[in-house]
Amino acid sequence: MIDSEDMRVTRAAYDEVAELYAKLFHRQLRANPFDRVMLDAFAEAVRDNGGGPVADIGCGPGRVTSYLAQAGLEMSGVDLSPEMIRLAREECPDIPFEVGAMERLRYGDAALAGLVAWYSIIHIPPQRVPAVLTEFARVVRPGGIAVFAFQATDEPTGIRDYAHKVAPAYRWAPDTFAEALAAHGLRVTATLSREARPDEYTPHATVLAVRV
User: Fold this and answer.
1) pLDDT of amino acid 188
2) Which end of the chain has fewer surrounding CB within 10 Å, N or C?
3) Can you tell me which residues the record assigns to a coiled coil (predicted)?
4) CATH number, residue 12
């Protein structure tokens, strides 16, 4: 596994809070209709596109993985944190989960019909994001669908760091992120931007993209 300093910090932080995180966010999707709308649109797009394997990259304890499996998708999950993977396996024993890094996925070229990066790319330093997106584009088949969620910013630079409660993280302007995706063969087809909820501190964005 690739093992940079930021990866070590992120893995250790999520290992430490894994059980608390799983409890806090267990019902989060039920309380957020905007997330459900975009995940449902993603699931429908994958099904309409012929279906096939879908990977949740940075899956945590598997809450989004499980939601999409219940929507009829053929899911698997990958996360940097062994503790998160342990919890995901306990919660969803019928879904395959493994410990892994975004830059070196074990899926073959064009193996996936879909890919999910749900608030997971936020912990990747901007200088490493191109390598991650290159790997994502490698494993998604042409015409395949990807969905990304992240905390958003309107900073002129398009990216800014912020004080995430678990590990160092970065906010992206949706247009800046769309440009990064396009440079790596992922064309944005829909974007949902929303203001912060009462329990949040930043705006949020979700992006659907197709592998060209």
Assistant:
1) 98
2) N
3) none
4) 3.40.50.150
